[in-house]
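Checklist before submission:
- one chain only
- standard amino acids only
- sequence pasted in full

Submission:
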Amino acid sequence: MIGWAVSPGFTDYETAVAAMEARANAIAAGEAGELVWLLEHPPLYTAGVSAKEADLLAPDRFPVYRTGRGGQFTYHGPGQRVAYVMLDLRTRGRDVTKFVADLERWIIGALQRFNVKGEVRAGRVGVWVERKGPGWAREDKIAAIGVRLRKWVSFHGIAFNVEPDLEHFSGITPCGISGPQYGVTSLVDLGLPVTMHDADAALRASFESVFGPTASAAPPA
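Returned file contents:
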């Protein structure tokens, strides 16, 4: 059974990465079980291995962390549920493409519980929501995905926008995608009065439908 841990308050980014990497190493060594770790970070930007410096539009606004996950620049902050996913792909087919697709299915399933249609797009990792109004249409990103594998154990994971300050995304070009037809949204921005507790319940139910049963666990030390 997969452990499911939730940390209250805000978790320092460097502390989280160190704990996550230690847990992933322990899983690879057969010394610990799989774990999904839900938390919130204080406002910060992270750069994945494909990040371009030109996409960091406000380098002095929030702390910037270089990280080994896939992807480009993204934002983490209050009101956004970050889920670090430490799963052993040696027992899950060693299929990275399927794993990323399963992460997308997980998020889409959670959104369905709020009657929100999440979609994926070729060439744009993450989950998107189509939005339309009189004379306009665009696609807004509601969740980002950035993972890394070491010895076939995953770490890093997803960032799911519940009620973050969307203006904070203006300091970067999120995931390197720009243009008036693309934006960023959240459950609350879509007009849904969703709490973090509500989002966690939806994420857990959807996760179990994709990856298997979970059991409440303590966050990694």
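Reviewer check: The first strand starts at residue 2 and ends at 10.
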